[in-house]
């Protein structure tokens, strides 16, 4: 099984990226947040990989850190949570925030993640509240994991993610402003990112 890919970033989209390793292009599914942190096309990348094999598919799921990969495995262990759903949950919050939300049983906050809802959020908390405490991130270890991202920080991350997809600074800033205004201060990064892409694809 493939455990790690180190190569050159060929291209990236809203849900995945293609990494060239010695002439072979690997399509890797990543969270929205991780995609936003990737460098520009043509730059070197190093991604941890989990391979999921089914009768009808052979998929690669990528992670930029050990805690992100560990959290993916825990999410995927929850009943009725498949690998794509697990990646969707990771797209809703930064890893330290997600760990903190699960550990504190913040069902309402988790339910706001796209595709989750109250019942799934309750199941995530029930099954992972104690388990996530074993995942060590620098922020969690220091006891400084943020309860919620600041609006300005989320907007900056959103603009950065759009720039990494190849959009120009004015386009990215305008789309981020529109998405933030439409969805409000409580919107998750994933929801803002999706809405900003809709704005950009709808044209001027």
From TrEMBL:
Described function: The RuvA-RuvB-RuvC complex processes Holliday junction (HJ) DNA during genetic recombination and DNA repair, while the RuvA-RuvB complex plays an important role in the rescue of blocked DNA replication forks via replication fork reversal (RFR). RuvA specifically binds to HJ cruciform DNA, conferring on it an open structure. The RuvB hexamer acts as an ATP-dependent pump, pulling dsDNA into and through the RuvAB complex. HJ branch migration allows RuvC to scan DNA until it finds its consensus sequence, where it cleaves and resolves the cruciform DNA.
Domain notes: Has three domains with a flexible linker between the domains II and III and assumes an 'L' shape. Domain III is highly mobile and contacts RuvB.
Keywords: Cytoplasm, DNA damage, DNA recombination, DNA repair, DNA-binding
Biological processes annotated in GO: DNA recombination; DNA repair
Chain spans, region Domain I: 1-64
Organism: Corallococcus sicarius
GO cellular component, one term: cytoplasm
Occurrences of domain Holliday junction DNA helicase RuvA C-terminal (ranges): 156-200
Family according to the record: Belongs to the RuvA family.
Complexes and interactors: Homotetramer. Forms an RuvA(8)-RuvB(12)-Holliday junction (HJ) complex. HJ DNA is sandwiched between 2 RuvA tetramers; dsDNA enters through RuvA and exits via RuvB. An RuvB hexamer assembles on each DNA strand where it exits the tetramer. Each RuvB hexamer is contacted by two RuvA subunits (via domain III) on 2 adjacent RuvB subunits; this complex drives branch migration. In the full resolvosome a probable DNA-RuvA(4)-RuvB(12)-RuvC(2) complex forms which resolves the HJ.
Major localisation: cytoplasm
Subcellular location: Cytoplasm
Listed GO MF terms: ATP binding; four-way junction DNA binding; four-way junction helicase activity
Keyword Cytoplasm: yes
Organism lineage string: Bacteria, Pseudomonadati, Myxococcota, Myxococcia, Myxococcales
HAMAP family according to UniProt: DNA_HJ_migration_RuvA
Ranges where the record places region Domain III: 151-204
Protein name: Holliday junction branch migration complex subunit RuvA
InterPro entries membership: DNA_helicase_Holl-junc_RuvA_I, NA-bd_OB-fold, RuvA, RuvA_2-like, RuvA_C, RuvA_C_sf
Domain called DNA helicase Holliday junction RuvA type: residue spans: 1-62
